[in-house]
Amino acid sequence: MNRRYLSIGLSLLMLFPMLLQAQDKATEVELEQSQLIPKSEEIYAIGTLFPSSEITIRPEISGRIIGIDFIEGRNVAKDDVLIRFDKRVQAANVVEAESKVMIAQQNYERFQAAKAGATAQMRDEAHATLLQAEARLEIAKADLEKMTIHAPFNGTMGLKNFDLGDYIQAGTSLVTLSNTDQLKLEFNIPERVAHIAKVGQQVEFSIDNFPHEMFEAEVYAVSPKIEQEGRSLAIRALYNNTDEKLISGMFTRLALKIPYGYDVVMVPEEAIVAQEGKHFLYIAEPIAGNDKQYKALMREVELGERTRSHVEILKGLSGGELVIRAGQIRISDGATVQENERSRTLRLERLETANAL
Questions:
Q1: Checking DSSP bridges between strand 167-168 and strand 63-68, what pairing results, if any?
Q2: What is the per-residue pLDDT across 216-246, written as a single tens digit (0 to 9) for each?
Q3: Can you list the pairs that 239-242 forms with residues at least 24 positions away whose Cβ atoms lie under 8 Å?
């Protein structure tokens, strides 16, 4: 009988260190530091891209087209010749006007030289005739210049709707010229946040054609009044399109951050544990004398707004605490935990990036 008790006692002594080792073994978890960030709201809107400069070329004088000096869809430089009209009539008008100026000049000089044989009224009339002749010459020269249309700025030609030899009436739309090195982004935001719109703000937007890319434009103009229809504020921003990646007329989706002027604590969504209608999370508190292990402490928190991956903590945290974002299902309040290597590496990388900024 004594031998039996002795055998049991020896077995328990052998198991005791193993039980202690199992009790001290830390559960591996993933950690992330709670962040204290400026509170903001994202306003989503839709917009459209337009050329920074665009005109429709229309002749000021009727005439027949004798020259087309551009290629549709190609770039042109400022002052390049685009369209030439038959200008023989206008050139003849200039010659006629020049001859009339010459005659008027001679008559005026004769009256000036013959002061005794000419009255003041005759000299004044001769001077007025000279001025009128000079004015008609300037008009004739201007009409002659209008028979050749030049590019007013660098840009890309649109598609023409005329051909060589067509007789064109004054004011007819011929072709567009667009400068798309920069694109204007036009959009509207709700009246309730109109006060935050400022020149110089950065605006992020996306294009359906490039679903995995984000583009950035800078606000350069804000409407001085709220549009009555829709109760919104019109805003324009400039996007640098030197690589010509985006095309005028594209539909855009925007996200505009609205600052609230105070900070909030944010933690990963997966760190939250729900129990009986309440919300909790585990804080990883460092263990004195052990730089690798932590004590998991459960804390009740009050939640605020959510983003795509994080949730706002209204009460329960002050910012900067290490919270357990993965592995909570295997632990309880007061358990010993240890951060796995992958989590530690990623957390330190995020911390270095934040410090660099």
A1: antiparallel
A2: 999 999 999 999 888 999 999 999 998 889 9
A3: 239/49, 239/182, 239/183, 239/184, 239/185, 239/215, 240/181, 240/182, 241/180, 241/181, 241/182, 241/183, 242/181
Q: For 42-52+179-262, which CATH superfamily applies?
A: Efflux pump adaptor protein, beta barrel domain (2.40.30.170)
pLDDT tens sequence across 159-185:
999 999 999 999 999 999 999 999 999
* Cα(53)–Cα(184) distance, integer angstroms: 9
Tell me the Cα Rg of the chain.
40
Where do runs of H (alpha helix) occur along the chain?
2-24, 88-113, 120-145, 341-356
Integer Cα distance of 326 and 270 in angstroms: 7
CATH 1.10.287, applies to 87-146? yes
Hey, which residues does 40 pair with through a beta bridge? 259
Token pair recorded at residue 294: 């932590």
Counting beta carbons within 10 angstroms of the beta carbon of residue 134, is it exposed (0 to 12), middle (13 to 18) or buried (19 or more)? middle
Q: Which residues of the chain have pLDDT under 70?
A: 1-24, 115-116, 351-357
Q: Are strands 27-33 and 336-339 parallel, antiparallel or unpaired?
A: parallel
Listed by start position, the domains of the chain span 26-37+263-356, 42-52+179-262, 61-85+149-172, 87-146
Q: Is domain 26-37+263-356 classified as CATH 1.10.10.10?
A: no
Would you put residue 136 in left (φ > 0), alpha (ψ -120 to 50) or beta?
A: alpha
Domain 61-85+149-172 has CATH 2.40.50.100: yes
Rounded CA separation 352/51 (Å): 41
